[in-house]
Amino acid sequence: SVAARAGGAGTPFTTWILQQEMEEKIDGELAVVLSSIGLACKQIASLVQRAGLQGMTGLAGETNVQGEDQKKLDVISNDVFCDVLRQTGRTGVIASEEEDVPVAVEETFGGNYVVVFDPLDGSSNIDAAVSTGSIWGIYESDSTCIPDFGTEDAAKIEEKCVMNVCQPGNNLLCAGYCMYSSSTILVLTLGEGVYGFTLDPTVGEFIMSHDNIKVPESGKIYSFNEGNYDMWTPGLKKYMDSLKTGGAEQGTKPYSARYIGSLVGDFHRTILYGGIYGYPGDSKNPNGKLRLLYECAPMSFIAEQAGGMGSTGKERVLDVVPEKFHQRVPFFTGSKKEVQYLESFM
Ligand code: P6P
Asked: What residues contact residue 156 under an 8 Å CB cut-off, 6+ apart?
């Protein structure tokens, strides 16, 4: 008989999850949650691929809590993630960029896990068929914040859900993203390395294509929206200017600029090719634009597990304890040497 593959390239995602469970890296509950996230990503990939054909581009006519116009696909992708996670019966709280507040999954709050996610990040790119992505993080539910649906009112339940969700990234059990681009790639970490799975549309399954991703130690690619340059601090301007004449090794080859304007696409290229992605704070938005809970913390967990860094410019993103659900932080991530060089200017 063909011995079951012990992981490695070519392993289907479903098989890999079962192997992690057999090796007791995850329990059966988390295995179910991960499989359901894989299903949500396949459903969203299908929607994104057909968006232009099914009249799903354009605006949904509503705005989210961030005051951003919600694209039709934003709303649909959020529903996909919420429905799939509820149906697992293993999630206690789900928290989405698209929802005003975290939501307790009443039917099964006994679920062990809290899932935070951005169902379709970079959705402003959808109308131009530019890459987008889903981002998620999974925490253990905080046993001191389990609401009592029998006795507590909605305000108390909401308060406990927000407390349960606002955990530092150091507590993450799993972080991942799925990029919808020239191919559909699901990348995740369970705390022991970073693995990438490419969707084989002929099978309808994610197949391992990246076995233990490692970020190059350095890389001469920078990914910032330089349109904000005039609003940056003097230190950051000095840093950016230095990249034009070689960066840490002044007088050597200048850096190349690559900016998709979609975090998942820019991040994925950065961890594979090396370099740095940054969304700094500026005079208009001192904490930048990206959200801590469901963008910067999961991406930082992945970056660190791949041997890179995730920094606010002053500290590890994973050390930041969220005070607010939709809290923003300045974000710099990628090759260790590149992020350390940036931090020396902050
Ligand atoms: P800007 C997309 O809206 C997003 O949240 C990230 O995906 C992306 O990296 C960033 O904002 C782009 O922002 O201000 O450069 O358009």
From this structure: 147
Note every long-range contact of 128-131, with CB atoms under 8 Å and residues 24 or more positions apart, other chains counting: 129/51, 129/52, 130/260, 130/261, 130/262, 130/265, 131/179, 131/180, 131/181, 131/182, 131/260, 131/262, 131/264, 131/265
Residue 27 main-chain phi, psi, to 5 deg: -95, 175
For ligand 1, atom 3, the nearest C-alpha belongs to 122
3-state secondary structure of 323: coil
CB 45 within 8 A of CB 37: no
pTM to 2 decimal places = 0.94
| Amino acid identity for residue 344 in this structure | S
* Three-class secondary structure of residue 332 per DSSP: strand
Q: Return the best residue to mutate from 222, 263, 293 for the ligand 1 pocket (most ligand atoms within 8 A of CB).
A: 263
Question: Which letter does DSSP use for residue 344 in this model?
Answer: T
* Long-range Cβ contact pairs of 51-56 (< 8 A, separation 24 or more): 51/126, 51/129, 52/129
pLDDT tens digit string along 203-239? Answer: 999 999 999 999 999 999 999 999 999 999 999 999 9
